[in-house]
User: Fold these one by one.
Assistant:
Number 1:
Amino acid sequence: MNAKKRLHDVQVKLVARGVKDVKFFFDKAKLGLPSKALEGAANLTEAYEQGRFSVAHDYVKPVDFVKPAIRA
Amino acid sequence: MIGAAVSRAKELSEEYNHYCRDNTATRRCEKELLWCGQCFEMPTIRVLDLDRDIGDTFPSGIFVSDGAYDILVRQDLDPAYRRLVICKEIFHIVLDSPDVRNMDIASHVEEVVADLSEELPRPSVIVEFAAYAAAMEFLFPHAERVKHAALGTPLLSLAAMYDLPVDIIDFYMSETMIETLDPGNGDA
């Protein structure tokens, strides 16, 4: 299945789940060509839709930061 | 939009400087920016590692839902790139509004990677570059770029000082980018 079709299929599922926007950071050495970028975007969005990730716990709380009060 | 993004980055920098204990270091911490963002901007931000094999051809990215943001980063990214990517995605959150969204993912990707488009890019494309510029303003402020350009500081030294990829330093230290992002430039 080509990347555009894969993206369209996964996009429908993401919209149904309430996803409003997707933005990307491309490694231009690997994904600089439109065809490669589409393939990469399809891989990422499918992985996200399928829950193929883990929370990066090292980002839960920084160590050198004084937490400010949360604004109302 | 890019000028407004850079201004917002400066505001967030002030909050960072106020609350971060190590606020004089040239290397700024994305974890603390994330904490700033969560405290001041939006309630839920998750940083997620792609931890299963999906091949090596995928970008990093951010998925936006109502009030919740998931930043996905490649687990195998070079640490300096990983920090830059997370900062860039945090600024997507800062700049998020319905006007800059585009859920036609394939069209968005094609528009972002098309370098030679003669048409004025859509806000959903411009914001990609605005978030990048804002992240760089936070990690390596324009005023410091100008200072080091005048001093002739080697790019490798700057990459080490600011813990940024040298190719990104090279790009943002170019005359074109320094001029484009000059706060006095109306186009910035």
Note: The mean pLDDT of chain B is 84.
Number 2:
Amino acid sequence: MKQLVILSGKGGTGKTSITAAFANLAKNGNPPINAILADADVDAANLELVTRPKRLESHEFIGGEIAVIDPNRCHACGICEQVCRFDAVIPPDSSQAVYRIDPIACDGCAACVYQCPEYAITMQPQKAGNWYHSLSLYGDLYHADLIPAQENSGKLVTVVKQNGRLRALDTGAQLLIVDGPPGIGCPVISAVAGADLGLIVTEPTPAGSHDMERALQTIQHFRIPALVVINKADLNREKTAEIQNYCKEKQVEVLGEVPYDPLISEGMKQGLDIVAYHSTSPASQAIKAIWTKVLERLSLLGGAS
Amino acid sequence: MRMANNNPLKIAVASGKGGTGKTTIATSFALSIINDISESLLFLDCDVEAPNAHLFLKPQLTEEKPVEILIPEVNESLCTHCGECAKVCQFQAIAVLGNKTLVFPQLCHGCGSCTMICPANAIQEIPKSIGVLQKGTAGEIKFARGVMDIGEPMAVPIIRQLKKWVAPLEPQITIIDSPPGTSCPVVESIRGSDFLILVTEPTPFGFHDLKLAHQVAKDLQIPAGVIINRENGAFSELEDYCKEENLPILMRVPFRRNIAEGIAKGRNLIEILPEMSASFQNIYHQITTLVK
Amino acid sequence: MKIALTTTAPNLEAQLDPRFGRCAYVLIVDSETLEFKAHPNPALNSSGGAGIRMAQFVSDLKPDAVISGDFGPNAASALQSAHLPMYLFGDSQSVKDVIERFKSGKLTKV
């Protein structure tokens, strides 16, 4: 079973739109590929908006733990504030004579728990979100939503991927397609773990190429083979050429270019990926050609294994 | 038009969804108001994983400071392998296996708990670089940002240190460019702001994520307003939501291919549409009224 | 010999679970008698360092060898430190298959 992760560095380059199109091509293309989908962008999960999923299971997700001070045991000695490195301890004020923990600032390190002389502090698990198993137009979809303002340590990403992976093992699926988050931090690191191939979707803007470089370095830092797709490539031909040259220098293959296509947005409003919405549109054709190459690079062109 | 403002004002720009135009709008906002105010203005790029504001503002960077967290170093000759450090560590960053105590720096949050607990005083802390802070100016605009090292997982400590580092500048106005998403790095960036501008696009993805970002604003009790970017006809769900939630729509930027191409060439919004400058100045005025 | 191996279910008929840190179960099996004890993975819910947690857990069970599909870099460092030899499943199809191959020295050592 292979794992493909789609990243971008910069948000808004078209990761999810392209992932959804890939999912469609896996199911309905030639050869059909038995694939499981995982939306690893748990912060702002959009894959479900273009794959029409029917929810099968819903699970609570307990994120990290945060420290909670028992006001009845607190003697206001202030040691917790001294040891906390995350500015998460609120000292007494006119409204309270004891110390309190700011749940948003708390890192969950438990240093205060072990240093409190009154044993007044305990770690309590926090519900951070939910994860789901749904059946989309293109197969099993694992996705999640993080409660806003919660910590996104990558744990929920791991849970989503892990369940996708187990399902793939159970059903003999050939491929796990992971729609990755923007950025390069812990959620991205969790999303790329175990990937056989990382596909970076970029756009020919200064921010797009700048962040593509960072995403590329991140994937390579974790020794995962990387490929690039330039989306909205005709918006700035000069910049697209620059990106092509950069990738050539770094010996990273550019799998293809996708033209800017307003039909993608229209399809999104109908809850559909571009291939479903308009299978012969310029973007659809470009994505189809790219998908064939993706399968080649993953050695999946032999069809069902 | 001179705008008087006595209390320091922090305006954050966020979106939920990446790619809606946060940085484009935030930098254009700064460039629009700088020539019309007498107050000092700081632009803070808190998107430390993938900072882009410098591409629009083109600042001269004059100062740099490494961001470090303290991680444990075990003195094996003093270590008794009792395992207390591993027990207290919440992140599996220190483990006792066989007769060695191993530290995994990339998992360490730098909390110091293991160091404090070690009964043999066998742990000392050493600094580990996780990123860099940079300061400079773009004309009259003071500029600062954080840049996370590749391969580092955590943005939050960098954002936190960035804000501390710029505090002595005491700018009267701060514009904060926050990262995409709605989780801890965003919260760390926008905490303490007086107003939040939510930049969205009128698409299902944009709207879905706007609601999440708005929830963060509500949790942090920060008043908010919306800028709709790339508008191409009305998106009724978005309009209804803003009405129901009393979210003022501060501005609408139309979708036009020439704007997209201009941005792609590295120009900022007010270079492409100079009339936007007056609109941003109006927004500034609106915000100062809304936060009173 | 006592062998630790990672599976998706707590019995000898289970499918092999290829990832060490994120496996569902670890089985400790006597390679001669096939007596076994199954343990659910204590690290399944860890956000990071699952491999390290699993390594600590497995090392406390004192097996003679650890076999899985793949060991992440942290898990590998940890198990090496504990002087636990690591082997890879390779093409093995079942728990019994792995044990036979281990006994005849056919498994790749990490």
Note: Chain A touches chain B through 68 residues (CB under 8 Å).
